[in-house]
Amino acid sequence: MTAVLCACTTTPQNVGQIGAVKGVLGGVTGDEPLAVQTARDVLSSGGTAADAAVALYATMTVTKPSVAGIGGGGVCVVHDRVAQKIEVLDFWPRPGTKTADGQTHTAVPGVPRGLYALSARYGRLQWGQLIASAEQDARFGTPLSRSLKMDLEASRDKVMSTPSLAAIYSRDGHLLEVGDRVQQLGLGALLTSLRVKGPGDFYSGGLASQIVTAVQNAGGTLTLADLNNYKPVWREATAVKSGNENLYFTHAPKSATGTGDITGEGDVVSVLNRYLADIDNAPTNSAKGGRSGFVVVDLAANAVACETTMNEPFGVGVGANAFGLDLASGDVAEPLVGPVLKLNPNVWEFYYGIAGTDTPAGATAQIARIAEDLVGAGSAAKLGMNAKGVSSVNYISCPESVPPHPESCRFVADPAGGGMALGR
Predict the structure, then answer these.
(1) How many other C-beta atoms can be found within 10 angstroms of the C-beta atom of residue 252?
(2) The whole model's pTM is what?
């Protein structure tokens, strides 16, 4: 799906209320329609790209937990134009601590503290406002989207054999259909706690103790020290020169030499080929999936591109059922490419953002898209597509930059992800 951003004026009024911003808002692209719509409402309310990203991810914990549950994590590239900063926020899930034989390896959740860190540093709206929509979605239910239905079908055996998942996503022994209402009261209560108390109770309070007890009783690997010690990490992005602009990656490629599949000259070509070499040497667990990507930009050129993960679809089916919390797999696979932003570091204008599933298939498709868009048409012609894992790539392209030319922007959601792109 593609949306085009029109050139209009913006007059923020009544910040915090939908419709406060008139005219151009910015735009969003991602793999789940309701989450994208929620993020757009945040932009309409005068929120920053960071605010919209927090609300989008929070909504996905309800509407697409297969790839973005509270028990998972993520990594984002974040641009703030006023601060003149481009940073990486790493809240990837980390392996939990084994305390007994025979436990299922679960991860330490990074989402609550990760989203709170993003809101605290670069948000304008109140934290509670950004979580409230997701909370209501969980409590009162939402129609099952085609996007989540695709994930349920792909993981049918796991869903039907996992009591916590089957109770939510099946009726009378059959998976729910698109449009059926999905209600998650336990998750709603957890989101209420996060909205009211922030993430502190989740990681170090009474709620943390309850979660650890529930996970260990269910056979998972999680200790109170795991939760207490989990901290998201801010770090410098990896910059690669692209004409007058830079591409900003979450990490540098590990391979010293590239494949040569991307043709052309310059640093971007070299780096993309090195990422392709990384993909060729990727561990087998990187193909499991359970990942998604989204991009948000506001009219001020603040931008956030994020990759979400559960390390495999729907995690491992172990968690704290009373809180609607399913944990990501403890078999952690690091990002292959990760989300990417293109910006001018002299005038801090936004040109491009891309993120996807980042499996070997998704990462290869993402590199091909970057090459065709930013290196030149035909530069990825030699590249064979990888078939390992689910592939979906979402991107925003503003060839004349934001600001001053938001009318040049295109917002594209990959049809394979069943998502949506909104820009106005």
Answers:
(1) 13
(2) 0.95
**Which conformational region is residue 401 in: left (phi greater than 0), alpha (psi within -120 to 50 degrees), or beta?**
left
State both tokens at 141. Answer: 């239910």
- Using alpha carbons, list the distances in angstroms from residue 422 to 1, 24, 117, 141: 9, 11, 25, 23
How confident is the model over 188-201, as pLDDT tens digits?
Answer: 999 999 999 999 99
Nearest CA-CA partner of 134 in 193, 178, 175, 210: 193
Q: What is d(CA 316, CA 293) in angstroms, rounded to the nearest whole number?
A: 20
* C-alpha dihedral sign at 94, 96, 97, 101: negative
CA distance 322 to 213: 12
CA distances from 263 to 84, 240, 253, 272, 363 (A): 33, 17, 18, 10, 17
Instruction: Express each pLDDT in 264-297 by its tens digit.
Output: 999 999 999 999 999 999 999 999 999 999 999 9
- Compute how many other C-beta atoms are within 10 angstroms of the C-beta atom of residue 94: 17
